[in-house]
Amino acid sequence: MPSLYNLPAPAKVNLFLHVTGRRDDGYHLLQSVFMLIDWQDTLHIETRGDGQLRRHDMNVALPEDDLCLKAARLLQAESHTSQGCDIRIHKEVPWGAGLGGGSSDAATVLLALNQLWSLNWPRARLAELALKLGADVPFFVHGHNAWVEGVGEQIIPLSLPDDVLRTPLAMLKPPVAVPTVAIFGSPTLKRDTKRATVADFLAAPQRFGRNDLQAPAELYSDQIGQALAIMQNRFGNSRMTGSGSTVFSWITEPQSQAPHFQPADVGMDDHAWVGRVSRGLVRHPLLDVLAPTD
């Protein structure tokens, strides 16, 4: 049966994240810049002729009904195909981290099955389906760094400056998974940040704006505040990504040559904390390999 192996599912960071309002249905209106990074999961997908959908965890146990299976199930139902698949995942991006790992995995499943099942759907149709799985999934389907608005469905490709892509990021995740619903439901969440423009961001991309979800996340867990303080003391520019709990900092000279970053480097010997150095990607690694018609 047809199969695809070693499929990357890269994470992302929010270089800023503003909440600009709230719709009548309760969904929040956002503005953000999403940057793909080289921290990634790896998927292997094989087709099945019996219509069954199965996931196999290669290194860590995932929730029984994760986004990968939901993506495969949704595409199978919408396309009315009789084919199934086996999905094998080597998980490296932590969940509950604000890095979009589960959303990226789901997008890679959609892109791969679109080819393996010979559906040949255009990217716009896959992205429309992806929005049913979560606000971040369409971004990974489109595969470009992007200016993102609305509830995540308004995605404008954005070419990031070279210095943004070249400058490494130190990333530190404390051992807490933050439920998104708790952050967006917090009475302390600021929901009226003034709308910005792409030009505003590009004038100072490494310093622009803030993450409006950071304050309620710090109230949810003091470990996030601890991570922010650690990174601020070490690098001077810490910020949370997504709804947390990962904190990142730009590494400027002379630390920029350091290829590795571990929690022990900032005095954290607790092995439950995760740290690494990542860099931005120009585009999704699968953008030209699994290329739906646009």
Query: Which regions have little confidence, pLDDT < 50, spanning 5+ residues?
Result: none
- Give the H and E element order: EEEHEHHHEEHEHHHHEEE
Q: Let me know the largest β-sheet.
A: 6 strands, mixed
| Count of helical regions | 9
Structural class: alpha+beta
Alpha carbon gyration radius: 19 Å
- How many runs of DSSP E, i.e. beta strands? 10
Strand content: 25-35%
Shape: globular
Outline the structure in words.
The protein has 294 residues and is α+β, with helices and mostly antiparallel strands. The protein is 27% helix and 27% strand. The protein contains nine helices and ten strands. Strands 1, 2, 3, 4, 5 and 6 form a six-stranded mixed beta sheet that branches. A four-stranded antiparallel beta sheet has the order 8-9-7-10, covered by helices on one side. Helix 1 (67-79) runs parallel beside helix 2 (101-116) and helix 8 crosses helix 9. It is globular, with a radius of gyration of 19 Å. The model has no long low-confidence stretch (mean pLDDT 93).
